[in-house]
Design brief:
By secondary structure, the chain is an alpha/beta fold. It folds into two domains: 306 residues, TIM Barrel, CATH 3.20.20.70; 49 residues, no CATH class. A hairpin with a 2-residue loop joins strand 1 and strand 2. The longest helix has 22 residues.
Length: 448
């Protein structure tokens, strides 16, 4: 079937003539778009994104839900999921499981670092997610988030302006790709040599304010992008109430550009990906849930935020996740656990895994730290095996991918249940009204 038989394109935009026919075509459409190049790739991705909006899957900001959470915590924690590889297949599973369990708030996200090593620029990432929504028949707001849009400390201290301009460029690219949720992480430039907490946090809250003002300046009409801040560099010492107040009071004094941040990431004992022991297994993580409860309560009651955000949680034991809603955590970030399922599922051919590992050993040999075992090196570096080999991952046969997706589906079901987001679609319908932002498509490049 040809594309022109299922959609129509006019000055008013894209309309759908045959939704079933379109859904049947989506696997091949998104594949062709992702593996096209140059201007044709951009045009193709934009077209699929417009198709998704016409089909009812609309990129949205979670801001208004988080404002409601700031007034009255509804008892659930929003999962924010970083998808590094097999993104289309994994996103389909997430939508399918969310519809099956009546889940309202769930976020797809990708970090600054991940955009680089997974070779998923914002436009590609958002479009692949939206294509999955169409394929599965999902209709409603789709929350897509820029995670850890971070100032790299050594770059910033060497010359602050180029580093700041780079992050602003990434923010602009992400907003154009319809990421309407962005987490700013300038906790990397906290100055611990200063005497008072406020002066230690000053570089952090001043740069968050500058980047947040830029977001407010360029966000589309009718949309307030949900912005997150961060006080605790993940993997360092635990955050304190005094640090939270120093940061938020300073931010409040500095930021005068509209709605301010909706949530705050803190440190409570985790590290991204977990801590790997010499045999390649993960050390047990102890999260300070008392700190998480205290900071979430404080963020809500004194500042009207949705609560505190927990990073680096996907490798926690399953019996820990129920604690996030119990402690009033507003959002939890999950990434490495999904990657581990992809690599460690027994149906992944050993020769393919060895091909990926061989690539990593060759390309990233300089990252092998002194004293690391091969298991530790591979565990910490294999996230970089998705981007350069993206097509090979995508081309894995269904006999390999289906068991991986089944295991992922079980994981998402468990997370949705433990985080208490089951049967939450009504609160999202009441609080979030997605705004359709139409984008120009170069139809000539696509022969349409």
């Amino acid at each position: 079937m040809e594309l022109k038989n299922v959609i129509a394109i006019s000055k008013e935009g894209v309309s759908i003539k045959d939704l079933k026919g379109l859904r049947d075509m989506m696997d091949s459409l998104i594949y062709e778009a992702v593996f096209s190049e140059g201007e044709k790739k951009t045009a193709f991705l934009l077209l699929i994104k417009e198709i998704a909006k016409a089909a009812g899957a609309v990129p949205a900001s979670i801001q208004t839900l988080y404002e409601e959470m700031g007034k009255s915590y509804p008892g659930f924690t929003v999962p924010a999921m970083n998808i590094r590889g097999l993104t289309y297949d994994t996103s389909k599973v997430i939508f399918r499981k969310a519809m099956e369990m009546n889940v309202g708030p769930f976020i797809f996200e990708i970090a600054r670092s991940e955009i680089g090593y997974t070779k998923q620029r914002p436009l590609e990432y958002s479009t692949v997610v939206l294509a999955a929504a169409v394929k599965e028949g999902y209709q409603g707001p789709v929350f897509i988030q820029g995670d850890h849009f971070q100032l790299v400390r050594k770059n910033y201290l060497a010359d602050s302006r180029p580093e700041t301009d780079y992050v602003k460029g990434l923010i602009k690219e992400a907003i154009e790709a319809e990421f309407y949720n962005i987490d700013i992480d300038t906790s990397t430039i906290v100055d611990l040599e200063k005497e008072t907490l406020k002066e230690q946090q000053r570089p952090n809250f001043e740069m968050t304010a500058e980047l947040a003002a830029y977001i407010r300046e360029i966000q589309p009409a009718g949309i307030d992008i949900s912005i997150g801040g961060e006080i605790g560099e993940i993997g360092k010492k635990n955050s304190t109430p005094d640090e939270l107040r120093a940061y938020l009071d300073g931010f409040k004094e500095t930021f005068k550009a509209g709605k301010w941040i909706s949530k705050l990431s803190v440190q409570t004992g985790t590290s991204h990906g977990g801590v790997v022991l010499p045999d390649g297994t993960l050390a047990k993580v102890k999260i300070d849930f008392d700190t998480l409860r205290t900071l979430s309560d404080l963020a809500r009651k004194e500042y009207g935020l949705s609560g505190a955000v927990q990073h680096g949680a996907s490798t926690l034991p399953e019996d820990a996740f129920h604690m996030f809603p119990e402690t009033g955590t507003s959002e939890v970030h999950l990434a490495t656990g999904f990657q581990n399922i992809m690599y460690d599922n027994k149906t992944l051919p050993s020769e393919f895994r060895e091909e990926v590992y061989g690539f990593i050993k060759t390309e990233y040999a300089k990252e092998w730290k002194e004293g690391q075992t091969e298991e530790q090196f591979m565990y910490s570096t294999r996230k970089k095996g998705f981007g350069p080999l993206k097509k090979k991952w995508w081309d894995l046969p269904s006999s390999v991918k289906e068991p991986i997706m089944k295991e992922l589906a079980d994981k998402f079901a468990l997370l949705f249940s433990k985080l208490k987001v089951v049967n939450t679609t009504e609160i999202v319908k009441k609080t979030v009204k997605p705004v359709v932002v139409k984008k120009e498509i170069n139809t000539e490049l696509l022969g349409l």
